[in-house]
Design a protein that fits this description.
about 425 residues, alpha/beta, 2 domains, six-stranded mixed β-sheet, four-stranded antiparallel β-sheet, elongated, Peptidase_M20, hydrolase, amino-acid biosynthesis, coiled coil
Length: about 425
């Protein structure tokens, strides 16, 4: 029997183990924020991979955003060396999940198996992908113990909040340098027949308008910061949003709506802070002297970050010319440049071949509308040979009743395993 057939048979035989592993991971509620149970899930992964012969490191990202004694930012990196020198294939999955939200009909941390689907927060994004990569590696080792190079599997913190306590921290310390790692696969849920080459750029900023506090019955004695912000939002509605809709990209971004530039008003806060949940009184009558919005601007490979920033500054300056006493501050919160791996990159060609072999169809090439940890591997690690590939439907991420299909995980595990064969099973 060919080695590839033996590998697929081995993965099929591990079906129940794959289900149980996914359920175990889902039942550890690694909510971020604030960053709960990171050490627990890292220790679970460590114990599993030590049993498979991996050397394991637990790494705390001291001093990164969110890291504290109550919520330490833990990561796990496991490495299995082959019998001969060769290249390293690294599977990187984030361990954190977003808030549950409302609207669930299943237990968000129950890991229920219903009609071939495993339900839970993080099922597709991305504990199902993590489980598939572990099973793929273990099956590969079972059928091909005499391999070249090395395999790494990591579980990293805080991808949902920027990845600074996870992949960024590790990349700064050389864990994703091209000398150590040559191929990276991130099992994000982009559908099992798709290869994600990269992502759009993002620029987060906070705009604050200023006013003057006064009694709410005499607003003419004050200056309402919320009204100033309303003028800013009106200018965006009339001029910026239509302009962004005209900017299109040649990047194969999915879904179709994300092939244009976008702007989201992420939050708005004006006037008095809301009281505690148990406070039942009324607010005091005051003219708000501050209003803040956080904007989330997603931009294209064809755009320059300087132009993205200038669009917002121009709007604020235009409003300043029109409104009396208009004062504002603009503060950058976060920036990530767009990235896209070439379709001729070795890891892309390898995974595309494995998809065709497993599913009998050509791989589709896509770009993610939002960023993920490839940004740090590219920018800090200087490693370009990186893609996202994993099981799960992208549209289910962060939704109620999130799930991952068992068959999708099995097929993705086969693609990952065949990719290991192609890259490491060399004479």
């Amino acid at each position: 029997m060919p080695l590839s057939d033996r590998l697929n048979t081995e993965i099929d035989a591990r079906r129940e183990d794959l289900i149980a592993l996914t359920q175990d991971l889902l039942r550890i509620p690694t909510l971020n924020p604030p960053g709960e149970n990171y050490l627990e899930i890292c220790e679970y992964i460590s114990n599993r991979l030590r049993d498979a012969g991996f050397t394991v490191e637990l790494i705390r990202a001291h001093g990164t955003p969110g890291d504290s004694e109550k919520y330490p930012r833990w990561n796990v990196v496991a490495r299995r060396e082959g019998n001969r020198p060769g290249e390293c294939v690294h599977f990187n999955s984030h361990i954190d999940v977003v808030d549950v939200g409302h609207g669930w009909t299943k237990d968000p941390f129950g890991g229920e198996l219903i009609d071939g689907k495993i339900y839970g927060r993080g099922a597709c994004d991305m504990k199902g992908g993590l489980a598939a990569s572990i099973v793929a590696a273990e099956a590969f080792l079972a059928v091909c113990p005499d391999f070249s190079g090395s395999i790494e599997i990591s579980g990293t913190a805080d991808e949902e909040s920027g990845g600074y306590g996870g992949v960024a921290y590790l990349a700064e310390r050389g864990y994703f340098s091209p000398e150590r790692v040559q191929h990276v696969i991130i099992p994000e849920p982009l559908n099992k027949d798709r290869i994600c080459l990269g992502h759009r750029g993002v620029w987060w900023a906070e705009i604050e308008t200023h006013g003057e506090i006064a009694h709410g019955s005499m607003p003419f004695l004050g200056d309402c910061a919320v009204r100033h912000m309303g003028a800013v939002l009106e200018e965006m509605e009339e001029n910026l949003f239509p302009a962004l809709a005209q900017k299109r990209t040649d990047m194969p971004v999915v879904p179709e709506g994300a092939r244009q530039s976008t702007l989201n008003i992420n939050s708005i806060h004006g006037g008095q802070s809301e009281g505690d949940e148990d406070f039942t009184g009324l607010p005091s009558p005051c003219v708000p002297d501050s209003c803040r919005v956080v904007i989330d601007r997603r931009f294209l490979l064809e755009e320059k970050i300087e132009d993205v920033q200038a669009e917002i500054k121009d709007i604020l300056e235009d409003v300043e010319k029109k409104r009396e006493n208009f004062r504002y501050d603009l503060k950058e919160l976060h920036r990530v440049l767009p990235t896209m791996t070439d379709k001729d990159a070795p890891v892309v060609k390898t995974v595309a071949k494995a998809i065709a072999q497993t599913m009998g169809k050509e791989a589709e090439y896509v770009v993610s509308p939002g960023t993920y940890d490839q940004k740090h591997i590219d920018r800090i690690g200087k490693l370009k040979n990186c893609i996202a590939y994993g099981p799960g439907i992208l549209d289910l991420a962060h939704k109620p009743d999130e799930y991952v299909g068992v068959e999708d995980m099995l097929d993705s595990a086969k693609v990952m395993g065949l990719s290991l064969l192609e890259l490491l099973a060399k004479p």
